[in-house]
Structures are given as structure tokens and as C-alpha cells.
Design a protein that fits this description.
- Helix 1 packs across helix 2.
- The strands form two sheets. An eight-stranded parallel sheet has the order 5-3-2-6-9-10-1-11, sandwiched between helices. The protein has a three-stranded antiparallel sheet with strand order 4-8-7.
- It has a single domain (5-258), classed as Rossmann fold.
- By secondary structure, it is an alpha/beta fold.
- Helix content is 31%, strand content 19%.
- Helix 2 links the parallel strand 2 and strand 3 (68-72).
- The mean pLDDT is 97.
- Bound molecules: fructose -6-phosphate (F6R).
- Residues 42-46, 73-74, 141-143, 147-150 line the site of fructose -6-phosphate.
Amino acid sequence: MSSITVRVFEDKLSGSQYIADALRSRIHTNDSDSKRTVLGLATGGSPKKVYDLLVESVETGELSFQNVTSFNLDEYYPIGPESRNSYHYYMNQRLFNHTDVDPGQVFIPEGDIEVSEVDHYCKAYERKIAGYGGIEIQLLGIGGNGHIGFNEPGSSIESETRLIHLDEKTRRDAADSFGGIHQTPEKAITMGVKTILNAKKIYCMAWGAHKARPVQQLIEGEITAEWPVTFLQTHANVELIIDRAAASLLTDSSNFIVN
Ligand code: F6R
């Protein structure tokens, strides 16, 4: 029986505010205890508003990233950090450039390493996360095909950080920003399902009707590698934060909290 807390919000803004508040308050608590906050971060459309709200808090002096360490879920491969489609570029533009984070405490899988180094690099990424005591709060979006990170359908619950082949649907979804399917990378480096499940707390978010199907699988479906998001059912501390449209296929509303 899954213990996922489902919170349905009126819209993306109020859901994002809930997540940004939770992150802010965890960072503040850890700051007062002189502890670093270790975050796992996602890219894509889903967390954009959360990052905007965090940046606002930094700009008003309410929040500091000085004691934050972050690990991103994934990066295309191959891709350079300056490419506008890279997740390095996204994170810098959307969040890091507007905060006081120590650049030495920001970890994003590198998409421009030699293929011969990838295995070694992925193992080192896992060790680095473990070296910081693991991820305290992980942010996740959900792919239309049920992927988390770039753990595409077929990924194992035991998977760790590795190079993967992107699903055709994932590539089609990204094709516009790359200027066509032929320019869209075929691979990515992603944290594994096991890496994600090792996080102490997970906030998974989904906005819009196009996410209703994977949300339904997550809450009402069997656990299956065909929908990697369903592996979150095995985690003890997941909150699913969604808007009404993403909740539209859930059949049992007694299981969720309407905000
Ligand atoms: C991004 C990531 C992906 C996205 C997912 C949803 O770092 O790991 O799993 O979270 O593809 O993407 P959006 O939010 O663009 O709908």
C-alpha cells in the first residue's frame, strides 16, 4: 500500500508556492543548526515556478544558498555546458546565477566527458552524493511516459547513475528546442531509480492534463518498470504536488488533500 501524500492545488502557482515554502523552511532550519542542505534538483517545465520563487526569496534577502549543496538529476549526452539546451545552462539561468550558492557545491552530470570515462564518472557521482550524507530533499517532475530523471520505461528499481538511451517520446518532446529530432541527443546521463529512492524526502510535481495519465499510474497503478514513476510507491516519504488538471484521472478523491 503506497503512503504517498497527494496534495491537489488550484493551480501551478499555489502548488509551486507550497514546494518553495518547504524548501525555504528546510534551508532555514538547517542554517540554524549549522548544517548544509543537500538538494536533488530537476529541470524542465515543472520546477520553473519553484525556482522563480526561490530566486525572489534570495533577492529579498530572506534566503541564502550559502549552505546549500545540490545534485541535479540528469544531463543530455553528449552536450556542452554552454549549449542553451543543456541542463547546466538551464540551472544557471533559472536559479544558480541569481543566488549566492558556492559553484563548488553545485553538481550536475557532465554531458561533455569522453565516453570511455562515463562509467567511472557515474560511480563517482554516486559516491559524491553518499559523501554528503545523501540527498535530503529531491524535486522531481514526471515524464509523459512515466520517467523520473531520465529513467525511461524498462529502468530497474536497482538502477544507479548511468548513461541511458532516451525514449523516442522523450526525444520528440525535446525536439522543438533542439531544432528537430535529428539534432536531439539520443542519450543522457541520469541518476538511477535507486539513487532517487535513497533521498530522504521527495516532492514530485505535475501540472496540466497531459500529466494526468502518469499521475494516475503513480497513485492507482501497479508497481512496474513500464512506468518508472510507480517505483515511488516504495518510498516512505513522497509528496505528490499537482494541480486539478493533473489530478483529473484519479478516481478516489478520499485519498488526497485539496489545498
Ligand atoms: C528533468 C527530468 C525529467 C523531467 C520530466 C518532466 O531534469 O529529470 O524527468 O522532470 O521529463 O518534464 P517537464 O517538467 O518539462 O514536463
